[in-house]
Amino acid sequence: QVRLVESGGGLVEVGGSLRLSCAASGRTAGNYAMAWFRQGAGKEREFLAAIRRNTGDIVYADSVKGRFTISRDNNKNTLSLQMNSLHIEDAAVYYCAVGPRAGRDPPKSPEQYDYWGQGTQVTVSS
After folding, report:
1. Is 112 helix (H, G, I), strand (E, B) or coil?
2. How does pLDDT run along the chain (126 residues), one tens digit per residue?
3. How distant, in Å, are the alpha carbons of 13, 48, 52, 119 from that of 5?
4. DSSP-assigned beta bridge partners for residue 17
5. Angle at the Cα of 4 from the Cα atoms of 87 and 21, rounded to 5 degrees
6. How many beta carbons lie within 10 A of that of residue 46, not counting itself?
């Protein structure tokens, strides 16, 4: 079992930045995929970025490449998402997730992730 708790959401103006964090506890050893997703009102859950816990292999969604940066600190069992140049359409509930250990590139499909946090709200104002 893995428990995930997100933090760092809030209200930010267009063009601003936020840094989200996800604290993981439980069975966190191994080359797990660790990912960030988001879900806007009335929308499906959207993949943003993922990283392999041990190898550090990273994948990004095209929609956030160059603006968002995913990172992890294995000593602290935390996953982070630095978000810059935020747009109105970035407003959503942001979730961290832990998924399979197999494979090289972390998966992008939410169905492949087994553990989820409760989410943190990001609101972008104009």
Report:
1. helix
2. 899 999 999 999 999 999 999 999 998 788 999 999 999 999 999 999 999 999 999 999 999 999 999 999 999 999 999 999 999 999 999 999 999 888 888 999 999 999 999 999 999 999
3. 24, 18, 18, 8
4. none
5. 40
6. 17
